[in-house]
Amino acid sequence: MAKINQQVSDSYRNNTSSEPIGAISKRDYLLIRILREVGCTVSELVNIKVEDIYTNSIIVGKQRRHIEISIGLREEIKNYLKKSSSEFLFSTRQSPKLEVRRVQQIVKKYLGTKPSKIRNARIIEITEEKGIKKAKNIFGLKGLKIKSFLNKNDIKKLRDNIIDKRHFIAFNTLLESGCLVSELVNIKVEDIKKYSISIGISKREVRISNELLTSIREFISEENIKDFIFTTRQSGRISDKRIFQILKKYGKNTGIELNQRILRNTKLAMMLQAKEDNKKIKDELGIKRLEFGSYGLLNKNG
């Protein structure tokens, strides 16, 4: 199986692997370390009992999954339990079990992130190291969806293969904006003119490279386009079906899997590499929710 793209997985992982900020108690340090290494959910974490701690593993979740742990974590837990007499691994003075909300607050305070992101980073890491089937078992997932995308070599190969200027611009617009084919075919001249460094797509402002923006403007001028950017000799607007045919053609010519989904995933991968925040990713891609709980990013072509 091809490996998860190193830049993307490293970028995502680095955002969740920084050291806790400020003075931190042994309990809080340990729970963060377990979240990172075990990759369990917060609800699984707070329900870990002392009896669930084994020499080389921890039992987590309703499925009672045995998760292997490192020697370092094993020693941390061992030292922590010397001063604990509670049934659950993590407790408070007021309660025998730590609340989910409190764990979320601790992670936010010391790492500036959400527990789900720590779990997602671990899912990506284990999927890369051990494969999809093993990752599903470790994290108790019914499904583990892998989003394939293009790497730099794929993109260069495709660009070198596309001679037709209209096709070249359409490909790069899909790639850089992450828009849907149905959105691409509806881009008009006015959507290009109203922004200086972006284009308008379905009422969204999406930033693209200066090189692509210049190419689009030159194309508009050369072809004397007045309305829709992408047209055919028979129609004032190219059809979705024709764009899909074009993508399939160049994918076949280069031996690279190419479709709308992969181009959108590539845009997502680029934004993760650039460490863009979730809000910006959602705004540019036009999606309401961005979840990585059961998703990895995989380059299948390289």
What does it look like?
The structure is a single chain. With 302 residues, the protein is mainly alpha-helical. It folds into 2 domains: 6-147, hpI Integrase, Chain A (Orthogonal Bundle), CATH 1.10.443.10; 152-257, hpI Integrase, Chain A, CATH 1.10.443.10. The protein contains 15 helices and 6 strands. It has helices spanning 6-14, 26-38, 42-46, 71-81, 100-111, 115-130, 132-139, 152-161, 165-177, 181-184, 189-193, 210-223, 240-254, 260-273, 278-285, and strands at residues 57-60, 65-68, 145-148, 198-201, 204-207, 295-298. The strands form 3 sheets. A two-stranded antiparallel ribbon has the order 1-2. Strands 3-6 form a two-stranded parallel sheet. A hairpin with a 4-residue loop joins strand 1 (57-60) and strand 2 (65-68). Helix 9 (165-177) packs antiparallel against helix 12 and helix 9 packs across helix 14. The longest helix has 16 residues, at 115-130. The model is unreliable at 1-13, 292-296 and 298-302 (pLDDT under 50).
The total of beta strands comes to 6
- Broad shape: elongated
Strand content: 5-15%
- The average pLDDT is 85
- The CATH superfamily of the largest domain is known as Intergrase catalytic core
Look at the helices and sheets and give the structural class.
mainly alpha
Low-confidence region ranges: 1-13, 292-296, 298-302
Distance between the amino and carboxyl termini = 10 Å
Number of helices: 15
Strand order of the biggest β-sheet: 1-2
CATH class of the largest domain: Mainly Alpha
- Overall number of structural domains: 2
- Specify the helix fraction band: 40-55%
Order of helices and strands: HHHEEHHHHEHHHHEEHHHHE
Examine the coordinates and then state which fold CATH places here, giving the name of the CATH topology of the largest domain: hpI Integrase, Chain A
State the CATH architecture of the largest domain: Orthogonal Bundle
Q: Provide the gyration radius in Å.
A: 24 Å
Biggest sheet statistics? 2 strands, antiparallel
